[in-house]
């Protein structure tokens, strides 16, 4: 189990990015959250098996390839306190 902290920037707000992130994460049984940042980026905290996190990233980057211009990502040990995957406002 891992926790990933991901920030996508580009034209990632107003295109359904948070909704699709939640949908893909739920399909992969991942836990965490996604939210818009005031600078126009989207931040994701996601926990689960590393292979499932990799699948989430692949799905997002395929689906939004023309909108994503930059990605920052880091891994750490999971907190284990998430019970689902949510959109945070």
Key terms for this structure?
2 helices, 89 residues, Alpha-Beta Plaits, alpha+beta, 5-stranded mixed sheet, single chain, 5 strands
Report what the structure shows.
- Helix 1 (17-27) packs antiparallel against helix 2.
- The chain has a 5-stranded mixed sheet with strand order 4-1-3-2-5, with helices on one face.
- The radius of gyration is 12 Å and the shape is globular.
- It has helices at 17-27, 50-63; strands at residues 2-10, 31-36, 42-48, 68-76, 85-87.
- Strand 2 (31-36) and strand 3 form a beta hairpin.
- The protein is built from 2 helices and 5 strands, in the order E-H-E-E-H-E-E.
- By secondary structure, it is α+β, with helices and mostly antiparallel strands.
- 28% of the residues lie in helices and 38% in strands.
- The chain has one domain (2-87): Alpha-Beta Plaits (2-Layer Sandwich).
Helix percent reads 25-40%
- Uncertain regions spanning at least 5 consecutive residues: none
Q: How far is it from the N-terminal to the C-terminal residue, by CA? A: 26 Å
- Number of helical runs? 2
Profile the largest sheet: 5 strands, mixed
| Helix-strand topology string | EHEEHEE
Spatial ordering of strands, largest sheet: 4-1-3-2-5
CATH architecture designation: 2-Layer Sandwich
Number of structural domains: 1
Task: Give the CATH class.
Answer: Alpha Beta
Rg from alpha-carbon coordinates: 12 Å
- What CATH calls the topology is Alpha-Beta Plaits
Structural class: alpha+beta
Taken as a percent bin, the fraction of beta residues is: 35-45%
**What would the principal axes of the Cα set say about the shape?**
globular
Compute the average pLDDT. 97
Kindly state the number of beta strands.
Answer: 5
